[in-house]
Automatic annotation (TrEMBL):
The keyword Chloroplast does not apply. The gene is coaD. It is found in: Cytoplasm. Pfam families: CTP_transf_like. The keyword Amino-acid biosynthesis does not apply. Residues 6-135 form the Cytidyltransferase-like domain. Its cofactor is Mg(2+). It comes from the Bacteria. This is Phosphopantetheine adenylyltransferase. Homohexamer. It comes from Aerococcus sanguinicola. CDD domains: PPAT (cd02163).
Amino acid sequence: MSKKALYAGSFDPITRGHLDIIQRGARLFDQVYVAVASNTSKQAFFSPEEKVALVEEVTADLANVQVLQFTEGLTVDLARDVGASVLLRGIRNNTDFEYEMNMAEINKLQAPDIETVILLSDAAYRAYSSSMIKEVASFGGEVEAAVPKVVAQAMFAKYKDLNA
């Protein structure tokens, strides 16, 4: 039986920390679905299509990773739709832990048959959040330690267009 995991997030933008979780998940599971979601509580920087394209580009070398656009509904419902028995998550710090622990409990209530597996972020990526990276990039600062080069280029191009 194939073990499938679903890793959902807004990935706005996808960071090296996200990519590390995806790569490690791809080693642990037969199939990893990366669900690019829209976070309704935040103003998106990249469009859903731009985010999907960037995630596809940075995961292109991972044969067992498939990127999906996820616009509505519960994550556990999408997991069931793709046949995933695991929700893959990453945590950087205590704040993430508290949030993910609560989310895991809510997901377990909705879908007792789907497990949450949490990977600890690599220490090299713990300080980076998408919002922090966007702020630094908006001022033209160095972000390639935090995001893949193609993502940094896309961010700078987007800021250039917004400021034109």
